[in-house]
Design goal:
It is built from 14 helices and 14 strands. With about 400 residues, it is of the alpha/beta class. It has two domains: about 40 residues, no CATH class; about 350 residues, Ribokinase (UDP-N-acetylmuramoyl-L-alanine:D-glutamate ligase, 3-Layer(aba) Sandwich). The longest helix has 15 residues.
Amino acid sequence: MSDDPHGLGHRTQPTIDDVARAAGVSKGTVSNVIGGRVPVTGATRARVDEAIAALNYRPAETARALTARKRQPEPNLRIDASVPRLTTVGYVSVDYIACLDRLPQREERRLAHEIIKAIGGPAANVAAIAAGLGAPFPVAASIITSIGVDQDSDWAAGELSRRRVDLIIPRERRSGRLNRALVLVEADGRRTIVNEPSLLNDVDVERFVETTDPGAARWWLHLEGYQVPAQIAAVATARRKGFRTSMQATGLPAEWLRDHADDVLRSFDLIVLHRETLALLQTDAGDIRSGLASLAAKARAAGPSGPELMIVTLGAEGAAAVTRDGAIVEACALPVDVVDTTGAGDSFVGSFLAAWLNDCPLPQALNIACAAGSLQVTRFGAQELRPSGPDLIRLVDGADVSTHALI
């Protein structure tokens, strides 16, 4: 048996030519698969993906940045109308993840086991996770965002394109540089995040809503919490045009939510909250059970003018969904070894939306989302594990779900 099954000779790093040779395709086809901008048949893409995985091939960061700079992704508006569309709204950042045994004390220097560069931002994470599920939950994903003109911006644009997420941003509005964040992850998976203030233009949702007609497409507009205060008026316009709307609480200022709880309930079809935000919606959150009961009463009182669904993520305990008629559906998280909790909630939201938009029954969609969120904490970074729909279905097959109504 050959000691060099992939034909790399004495080289340790595979090249794009090695991938093309292993997949039996041209170098250009491999480039098209990596870039994600030129249509490639499913069978060909599968062969290339298999070769990339077998060779552990990683496109050079500089090459991806140059490719992204030359050809900025544009939203794909010719997608089959039967495929649900998900457009998220929020910032993209570059995360530098430091893997530590513990946080440093003041004046102390700590040695990180590793420092990883990854894409961050709740909206970007949700879009990438949703796009990655694939059949039987296909989603055409895009993000309304703002990016700069630096190499990090080009790198992030190329990575999102490779993950089948379209960028919706006018070329002329690119300026400055991409936001950066420091993520300090301790040995038990807890993380501390340090963001810098935004150095980019505001996200332009109004322009998208004014110039886009959802038509017959099932099109959802999803906001990360950071964007809700500034964009809630645009959400109302989007709903009048036929968009469905959703939001997650990540980044939503507590004071703003407390003062505008009724506006939030009237503006979104789907709301995803954290355990900590129950009290901010004027519910009795002395404990989770009473908090969910109070949320269910609020849902019944709002009736058709309120959200179709409200979900509360509960970390290692799973999640609970409250329907418009006050029923509560609960699902458990998977037992996993926690490495990094960054992005677990975003993975939950992206997976749930992909399943829900494809008419997956609520109990199964909730189980799938819990499984995706659980898996995410087993890797560093918020997008490094993007599970497929079939994999998640197998994981949750036969999982226990409880449903009850509180009167």
